[in-house]
Amino acid sequence: MAKSCFLQLIAQVQEVSLDGLETYVPLLSMSQNLAKLAQRIDFNQSSDSDEDGPERESREPWGKPEPEEDEGTVKFQPSLWPWDSVRNNLRSALTEMCVLHDVLSVLKDKKYMALDPVSQDPALTKTPQVFQLISKKKSLATAAQLLLKGAEKLTKSLAENQEQRRQRDFNSELLRLRSQWKLRKVGHKILGDLSYRSAGSLFPHHGTFEVIKNTDIDLDKKVPDDYCPLNVQIPSDLEGSAYIKVSIQKQSADIGDLGTVSLFRRQPKAKPGSQMWHLKLEAAQNVLLCKEIFAQLSREAVQIKSQIPHIVVKNQIISQPFPGLQLSISLCHSTGEKKSQRASPDKSKPDDHLYVLEHNLHQLIREVHTMPHPASSPFGHKRLRLAGPMAYDKAEISSLQQSEGLLEKIIKQAKHIFLRSRTARTIDSLASRIEDPQIQAHWSNINSVYESSVKVLITSQGYEQICKSIQLQLNIGVEQIRVVHRDGRVITLSHQEQELQDFLLSQMSQHQVHAVQQLAKVMGWHVLSFSNHVGLGPIESIGNASAITVASPSGEHAISVRNGPESGCKVLVQFPRNQAKELPKSDAVQDARWTHLRGPYREVHCGRMEGRNFVYKMELLMAALTPCP
């Protein structure tokens, strides 16, 4: 309403109809209004009118002079075309510019006209140097102030960009950290978890680390290649490196130390693309794992009841699996400062490292400790979920749920490793000491944690195909060795080394007699008697002596062989009576037919015979006593 009233005041009424409706004159457009205003400008007004002072200007607004009452003056008549005055003034300006151009062209040749400077008062033209310096100083100060303001704005903008880039890099690095480690925000801090509580660990150490922003470096300078905007702060007791050292030592001087194993020992080698915080967190978690495992082993060492109590002293657990054998488990923890002050600890020799024990212990600890254990799970056997008379009672369920501790499993593995190494050393010593017969050991590549098997073959060189009677299968357990013969007989040996050595010596002694038996069958000789345990003759301290008697195809000659583990081999040959030189005369035997019987035995010196081994010598002897066809 107010707007329509305002328009009515400005616009002029053109017509009023009979019904009282007013028609207004339409408003001029911007171009029409500009043309109307241009008609009111007097471009012919001279510059002298400016000297009349402000009074004339106030009397003559818009350049339109007031009409005078003189008779001789003519009133201003606007032309019919609105831009006529503008055209006239542009024409006059063009005329003046053409004149100026002609004058400048004449002055350029300097033939007809020249320019002279206009002399002025030197007092007015010469400005003192002091005022010039002051003005220049003010100008320079103004320029410097502008430059400083611009530099401040640029510095603020650069700082904001750097802070944004630093925050962006920190967030991206934090995202990588969160994808690999558990993080949570507590107040204004970002905390992480190094413990194995999510895998069922009950170790009381909190294992908390803090994530902080790395602000030590100046981004204005050159950023190093290993720069990381994120840093982690771990507890002081988890700094450095740690590992568990397991060593098996023999107190007697004949064997000495068996070897050492370093579990969870990490070398500080940075992988390409890995950050420093990742290496630091892995080392700290490894220290925490070693401490937790050693605490569990120490607790079990105190709780386990054994004939020889386990000793726990500081960071070392000492146990004796066998008499004269010592198992030592130590926690070795070194920080960065101590490592820099002293040299690295002495490394175990490659021959002194127990790779099998290391693999088994790693597998055992990973299975028992670090694998995730659910809070609840169903029982495996169906009878555990049944009720009634067919269900298990409390004693049976408790017996099923009983399991060995980690320390007991480590001790059992150490016993097995010791017994296996002792068996291998015994077989190797016999093979190197005794050349005839030969003993060979074939170890199985597929073994369990607490049991290994080795196949022992006792052969003679050159007669491997006919002398296959002695084949032994040794199953090495934790505290005993089970020997399975070729015929299925089973003998159980203890962990004592002397028992295994005596048993192998007796088997090697029996092999010589069995070889003579197989050779006699091949040569066509007849076996008259054979015994693995001879009751006559000197008593052997190791096992029993074995003997065999064979006769030639014609029956004229006989060979008797007696072999004992300690007494050695003794060979006797029986010739016919008619070939005997010094045959004692008998009054009872008068008939000539009894002269074809075999006479007394004569001992053969095997050491003087030609041949590379005992079986080859017996082959030559049988061939010599066999008559030609």
Automatic annotation (TrEMBL):
Compartments where found: Nucleus
InterPro entries: Mediator_Med17 (IPR019313)
Family from the record: Belongs to the Mediator complex subunit 17 family.
Coiled coil: none
Basic and acidic residues composition-biased segments: 55-66
Superkingdom, natural source: Eukaryota
Keyword Glycoprotein part of the UniProt annotation: no
An individual GO BP term: regulation of transcription by RNA polymerase II
Name of the protein this chain belongs to: Mediator of RNA polymerase II transcription subunit 17
The species this protein was found in: Sinocyclocheilus anshuiensis
Lineage: Eukaryota, Metazoa, Chordata, Craniata, Vertebrata
Subunit structure of this chain's protein: Component of the Mediator complex.
Function: Component of the Mediator complex, a coactivator involved in the regulated transcription of nearly all RNA polymerase II-dependent genes. Mediator functions as a bridge to convey information from gene-specific regulatory proteins to the basal RNA polymerase II transcription machinery. Mediator is recruited to promoters by direct interactions with regulatory proteins and serves as a scaffold for the assembly of a functional preinitiation complex with RNA polymerase II and the general transcription factors.
Entry's Gene Ontology molecular function annotations: transcription coregulator activity
Alphabetical keyword list: Activator, Nucleus, Transcription, Transcription regulation
GO cellular component: core mediator complex; mediator complex
Region (Disordered) location: 42-74
